Amino acid sequence: MRPSDLTTLVDGLLHDETQVTERGLDLTVNEVYVVDDAGRVDFGGGELEDATLSPHEKQWRNEDDDYQWWRLDGGQYLVEYNESLRVDRPLQVQTRDELLARGAFHPSLRVTSLDRVPLAVPPGGLRLKENARVSTLLPPEDDE
Hints:
Helix content is 6%, strand content 39%. The longest helix has 4 residues, at 16-19. It is mostly beta strands. Strands 2, 3, 6, 8, 9, 10 and 12 form a 7-stranded antiparallel β-sheet that branches. Strands 4-5-11 form a 3-stranded antiparallel β-sheet, with no helix packed on it. The termini are close together. The protein has helices at residues 16-19, 97-100; strands at 10-11, 25-37, 52-55, 58-59, 69-72, 75-81, 84-85, 91-95, 109-111, 117-121, 126-129, 133-137. The mean pLDDT is 95.
């Protein structure tokens, strides 16, 4: 499968021409969440409890901008994508190189849906613009 073929598996693309790259299809950030209160995970699943989340505040960098920015301090966040996935078999999602070069990352995952992903931000922080491309969805290997 070619990277451009991934567009048939993804809904909510903002701009196909920009998001399709030689490597795969870039996914964009819709919302950044802060974990306010702890969730719970137990052995049997009877005491599972979701963490309490709140959207991280955004601000205008310039009054002429069309989109706002998140000013993220070092720490852990949850990222929600603009896109959704419709596949039967898992695909690989990796941190985009541009994020890695700035010290931020999320785990590489094999997914059949695009749920919120934990994002680690370095101690110096990160400025992230609405709809920024943060992850890359890779085409499946031919032997999968």
